[in-house]
Amino acid sequence: MKKFFIQLILLVVLTFLFLEYALKPENFSAFLGGFDGGTPSETQTQVKIASTTITVDVADTKAKRAKGLGGRTSLDPNSGMLFIFDSPAKQRFWMKGLQFPLDIIFISNNRIVDIMPNIQPPMEGQIDSELPIYTPKTESDMVLEVNGGFVSSHNIHIGDTIEVQTISELPAD
Q: What does UniProt give as the signal peptide span (predicted)?
C-alpha cells in the first residue's frame, strides 16, 4: 500500500510538472509559427533616412541578433532589420542562412558611419568556418540590414542621419 501511494504522488508531481511546462507557449514556440507568447504587437518601428522610411524588425536581444535574417527567403521592399546593441563596438556580421543580397548600414549616434553594399548570400553548402565576417571601419551601436541595392537606389550615404520611430498601430480613442 505504501508503494502505491508513493507511485501516486510521483504521478501527480510528474503530471503537474508536465502541465506547467506544456502550458507555456515559449517552451514550444518553434511549433507555433513564431508566436512568442507575448501580447499582439501594437506598435511598429520605422527608421527614417532623409525622405526614406523603412519598416524594421528590431533585434535587441542576443537571441534575436544571433538569428538575424537567417532563414528568411526575402525582405519586403522598404523593410529591414535593425540590430540595437548595448554599447558601441565594431559589430561583426556573417550571413549564415541568408538567402538574398543585403546592404549593411552601420550607425553610431544616429549617424551612418559605414556601409557595406550588396553583400551576397553564402554559396549553397558553404560551411560555417568558410563564411566571410563583415566588420565595419568604425564602432557602431546600431546596424540596419536592408535589401541589396537599397542604399544606392535611395541615395543613402555615410554621414546621413537616421531617426528611429515607434509608431502606434492602434487608433486613438
A: none
